[in-house]
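Researcher: Last one for today. Full complex below.
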Amino acid sequence: MTAVAAVNVVHLRKVYRVYEREAGLGAALRALFQRQMQEIVGVDDLTFTIEPGEIIGFLGPNGAGKTTTLKMLAGLLYPSAGEVRVLGYIPWRRERAFLRQIALVMGQRQQLIWDIPVIDSFELNRAIYRIPPAQYRRMLDELADLLELAPLLHKPVRNLSLGERMKCEIAGSLLHRPQVLFLDEPTIGLDIVMQRRIRDFIREYNRRTGATVLLTSHYMADVEALCRRVILIHHGTMLFDGDLTRLVERFSPYKTIVVRLEEPADLRPYGEVLSQSEDQITLRVPKSAVARATARLLTDLPVLDLSVEDPPIETVIEQIFTQEEVV
Amino acid sequence: MTHLIAVYRQQLKTAIAEQLQYRAALVIWLIEVALGPAVSISVWSTVARNEGGEVNGYSPSGFAAYFIATMLVNYATQTWVFWEFSRRVREGEFSPLLLRPVHPIHADIAQHLAYKILMLPVIGLVTLILWLAFHAGFTPSTANLATFLPALLLAFALRFTLEWTLALLAFWLTQVNVINQLYVVVVLFLSGQLLPLSFLPAPLQAVTAWLPFQWMVAFPAQLLSTGLSAQAVVTGFLAQLIWLLLGLGLLSLTWRRGLKRYTAVGG
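Model: Here's the assembly. Have a good evening.
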């Protein structure tokens, strides 16, 4: 490896110790003297490398270990085993040079000070991150422009809406031009328009600065729009790391065939019927049977139009996670 | 260093802007701050008059001077870091602070300074009113007055260090407020806020001499109100310095261990 990778994770593991007790007063009293400790594996044996400038989608159901991983990458959590390097630094040491080059945006109430205008919090960040005045002005102008912040800057944070606050949080985290950006659910709770705006903005920031972005999201639209590569984790372990398109090939054993017919017919012999409208039928067919099914459909029936498609990514991922649940 | 100064300037500006949002609280605080000394002075002056003019060497005007001085020193050295800290850790507000390339203690120092600057006119007004109302008699020597400011600064540094360290207990205990409450009571008695330390029973006085609390309040307060002998002044400064060094050592140790714990369980 010649250049320093933006993120390098090897056999990363995090185990939490949690004290547990049953419900009720008796259990509470017993817990005073004898506490039941349980080890919970948050993240287990993760290994991946992210090159500078990549935008990676970090996917998994709730509790999969996404936030735990992000916190370890940002230096807020100490790994139980394995190695983490971000821009060549060991995150949990939180060296200043490291902290000045990263940002973690997580949730709504982070760095903005509740009672004072947004711009004052930004000014504080300027001093804390030692942003040169010229760069600060330029960055603020850019951010204000891209995220339409101008009308918000002089309002107290408590008067902002959820979406407005998220925009300001993101802007505040980017004033120091971090080279690595960790975004935990940047669009959660926002309406479609705002989601798209933030998405566009992340792409634009990545294009302009060459920053590396690692983002988690529940909205597949975010991931499809931004990430070529995704990392899938479930129960703390890695399920997939690679191109979004390959994800579908690899995990979905089915394709969908959409057929339009001149007259209605029973297509059940050809595959599983997913939906059926007046003249259009959607079939699910195992990948290996697609060629044969298509040929048979075309010879047997008066087909007007036929197309073979991959199932939507959202469905594929949902399938992966529910299958894993059973295993 | 210039970086830190810039951070402090900005933190101060921010904290002042923040505090100014609560102007009504200033008025309430004015009443709260004046009430304690007013009650103490009234009670002890009555006792002194009944005892023929003096108790333990304090006349009514001597009591007035002592309690006004205590109020001033307490205002200058008081912190509220442990309430802040327990909330921070509980509500997960601590993580963003850890991600900044500046030690979180600076934000807290700046915030306390900002509050004290803002309250200066309030405390000045209260002092003037109490002074006139109770005919306070301050009797320090010029040398005492000259050493008051350094003693006050050391007292603030010492108290801030100890209370910040205590605040770090929030990393280990989810309900740290009970301990804080206990600490507040101990300080009230043993720092000389409630009554001059010479009023405590002799054994207790001997104990307090070896504790940090009186060097945080009573020592500077006595410098200002009654004055102290040269020997007592030297003892006082030595005690402050030793406790400050101990406190700083304890702080950095607790900070490192606390952080390790915090980053092990997750914020």
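Chain B has a mean pLDDT of 92. Residues 87 and 267 of chain B are 12 Å apart (CA to CA).
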